Amino acid sequence: MIIRMSEAQVRPDRFEAFHDMIVGSVREFPARYPGLLDHEVLVAPPHSLLYVSRWRSEEDLVGYAGENWRDQPVVLPGEDEYLLAPLQVRHFTIAPLA
C-alpha cells in the first residue's frame, strides 16, 4: 500500500470554498479509481488542507496521478486561485513495528 498526502496552503479568505471544491471533486474518486482503498480530507484552518489517499499499488497510483506521481501533485482545474503556494505531495509506505 502507498499512502499519498497532498498538502495545500490555502488563502484564508478562500478556505471554505476550497474545502467544498475538494470534497465535491474527490467524492467520486473511489468509483473512478478502483485501486483507491481509502481517502480523506483533513483540515487545519485557516490555511492548511491535506488530501490523504491510500492506494493498493504503484500501478493504481499511476492510473490516478500519471507516470510522475512521485513528484507531481494532481491539480484540479482552477485550484491555483485558492492557493498561497504550490501543492506539496509526499508518499509513505507502512513500516513494520517489529
Structure commentary:
This protein is an alpha+beta fold and 98 residues long. The chain has a single domain, classed as Alpha-Beta Plaits (2-Layer Sandwich). The protein has three helices and four strands, in the order βααββαβ. It has a four-stranded antiparallel β-sheet with strand order 2-3-1-4. Strand 2 (36-44) and strand 3 (48-55) form a beta hairpin. The mean pLDDT is 96.
* Mean pLDDT metric: 96
Uncertain runs are none
What is the tally of beta strands?
A: 4
Helix count from the secondary structure assignment: 3
Q: What is the N-to-C succession of helices and strands?
A: EHHEEHE
User: How large a portion of the residues is in β-strands, by DSSP E?
Assistant: 25-35%
Structural class comes to: alpha+beta
C-alpha Rg (nearest Å) = 14 Å
Q: Gist?
A:
The protein has 98 residues and is an alpha+beta fold.
Layout of SSEs?
Elements: E1 2-9, H1 15-26, H2 29-32, E2 36-44, E3 48-55, H3 58-65, E4 88-92
Antiparallel strand pairs: 1-3, 1-4, 2-3
Quickly list its features.
single chain, 98 residues, alpha+beta, Alpha-Beta Plaits, globular
